Amino acid sequence: MSSTRSRQISFSRSTSTQQPQSNPHKHFLQRTEQNCPENLTESQRNRWFKIAKKAKQNAQLIQQLPAFHWPPSHSHQPIFIHHLTPHSTIQSVLEAVRDVTVYVIDTESDPPTQFRPEALPALIQIEAIHSETSTTVLLIEAQFLPFPLSPTHHLIQQLCQHIFSPHHYIVGWGNVRQELSHFLPFGLFAIHQLQQHINLQAYFTDTWNHTHPHLTSCPTQQHQFQIDIDSDSDSDSDVDLICMVNTSDFDDFRSTRINTQTTCTCTDDLRPYKKETEQWALQKAIKSTFNEALNKLHTMNTWACGLDPLLTTNNTSESIATRTDMTSYAINDVSAPTRLLFHLNHEIIRPLRTSSLSTIISSIAPQSPVPHLPEQQLPEPSPPEQAPIPLHSPEPQSTDSSPDQEPAPELPSYFILADSHGRHIEQTIITPHCKITSHFVSGLKWFDSQRPDLNAFSLIQSSPISTYLHSSQAIMLIIGTNSLRFVDAAQAVQHGIFSVFLGFCGLP
């Protein structure tokens, strides 16, 4: 579908009488054997009853459990993005998410009809995670986007291209690329931008199965135990090398699952899904984790209706209430994975936890001080974005020094070199026990043959960094490892150690 065509749909829908349903599950709840259409095939009949069963389960769940809760204080009112959104609003959003590196997404589409065999892409929900207690929710109404060549479209495109940057983590409940591929015709972003996409559904499934093993009486557990014994029979436990490897596609290293015909006999609360390959529904994940009900009432509603009151006129009180409910639904559907992301303590959000680095570092035992080295002039910062390396300030000399007075020992120094994960670390942290200097480079990689300015191995040996290494007790490197996906891990570790050694020694 072209962007021009999407705009035509916008006008027709915004002026039509088609409205979303206040209770789209109502007719599903009324399905019985008696009123099932006779002309359905076996597969159509099964699907017909499956939808009815899900609607009934949803109705029971929301009656039995408290509603899913995402504290309102964690995020402000959602920001609607469409052809009527003021430029100042879009620019403010772009500025607000400038430093955000983790985004959770979801999408909504109108179901197919007899006149339109394919689903109609309608809404992109994006939650920008500033911290554990602060997020920004964007609702992009795809069927109400501006003309492709308009200034408003350019601003929205600029916002989306920033969000879906290759350097950012894009999290979704399912395959992120597949989820967003339906929105490519609107020209807001390109699929190749999505380099660090995370399937939280698969991650949750693997984590649950790992932390909730089958009962010993379960045939599946007995079968798995036999496989484990066989696989470990030739292992050599004399030396273990443990490496932590991050990757831009977290699905590449998912745990290997055992595909077996053995029937699981575990209880439903332990193993709701009996097959290892089955993926968790978001609603069930919220129920099992938080004992709360994520209402899925509006899953199959009319989403290309214009949720923002600015997009519609002559609304009845019922249609306004329905759109308000759908907006809450859309927010919950993207906030639920966000809450799970923090609950699982996924590695990408650990830097966003509300903890103080200085408190952690101050607990490090002080070591022998290192002599202070002479200063070196640093080059001007250049793209990509870098935090300037702070210069050492000479200590003020006392005018009334006494020959018997001993100078105070200098604090030991530590140096942090990080990619964009370190942008929120203060450049200089001074505690009673040590002094910490941090420097971040947006887009920094362990290895980049094309961009020496983004190559950690090269930067470590550069004059500015080596100066700090030479005068530091230790160095901490906080750098993602996507650039090492196709490099031998042992060689990468050796190269890294050698580079740090050269930096510490000040060798060329």
From TrEMBL:
Question: Where in the sequence does UniProt note compositional bias of the Polar residues kind?
Answer: 1-23, 395-404
Q: Where is the composition biased (Pro residues)?
A: 380-393
Q: Where is the segment annotated Disordered? A: 1-28, 368-410
Q: Report the superkingdom from the record.
A: Eukaryota
Question: What name has this protein been given in UniProt?
Answer: Uncharacterized protein
Query: Which organism is this protein's natural source?
Result: Rotaria sordida
